[in-house]
Write a structure and sequence with these properties.
CATH topology: TIM Barrel
CATH class: Alpha Beta
Structural class: alpha/beta
Number of strands: 9
Distance between the termini: 22 Å
Strand order of the largest sheet: 3-2-1-9
CATH architecture: Alpha-Beta Barrel
Strand content: 15-25%
Number of domains: 1
Low-confidence stretches: none
CATH superfamily: Aldolase class I
């Protein structure tokens, strides 16, 4: 799959921080069975790589790794079964490692300078992060003029209501958000509630 393919699957990519391997399958099932098949598991916990492996076996789930900071962590994520990579910032060496391994990468940018550096690497699809703190929708609107061929997945500080507005923009392919699988619901194993949030997010209109 390409980054465009991933963006096209659903309007919201859940950004997942998970601490327990035993929660991986029920969480991925709740999300994927309710329309959110593309799942970003952040490499912020010791359980993350094992959870990627477990989630990858869930029917319909397309599991990637987020918070990938360098080529070494990219390799570990690939070995665990990640099928795409998301980074918080732009790293030329990590982009090169992704290209060499043939895995789609969505690198993070927050400024025009970082965006131009990404264009120099041959990229036109980026995570806009941290979206709300970096200028939010107004910044994306400003990017449209000089960077008309670029599309973004804004992530960071986005709620359901904000997502509705972000998704109206022609340069937004999808948004990333943790509101569909908050830690408190994962800890309480409220899979039905997470499924309901996923279904609501999956139904958001685009464009």
């Amino acid at each position: 799959m390409t980054v465009d393919d991933l963006m096209a699957v659903q309007p919201v990519i859940p950004v997942i921080t998970i601490d327990r391997v035993e929660d991986a399958v029920p969480l991925a099932t709740a999300l994927a069975s309710n329309g959110l098949r593309v799942l970003e598991v952040t490499l912020r916990t010791q359980a993350a790589l094992a959870c990627i492996s477990e989630m990858s076996a869930v029917p319909g789930a397309i599991v990637g790794a987020g918070t990938v900071l360098n080529a070494a962590s990219l390799d570990r994520a690939r070995e665990a079964g990640a099928t795409f990579i998301v980074t918080p910032g732009l790293s030329a060496s990590t982009v090169a490692a992704a290209e060499e391994s043939g895995i789609p990468i969505l690198p993070g940018i927050a400024t025009a300078t970082e965006l131009m550096a990404g264009l120099d690497l041959g990229l036109t699809r980026f995570k806009f992060f941290p979206a709300e703190q970096a200028g939010g929708r107004a910044m994306l609107d400003a990017f449209r003029g000089p960077f008309g061929a670029v599309k973004f997945c804004p992530t960071g500080g986005i709620s359901l209501d904000l997502a509705r507005d972000y998704l109206k923009r022609p340069n937004v392919g999808c948004v990333g958000g943790g509101w569909v699988c908050p830690t408190k619901l994962i800890d309480a194993k409220k899979w039905d509630e997470i499924g309901a949030l996923a279904k609501e997010a999956a139904s958001l209109p685009r464009g």
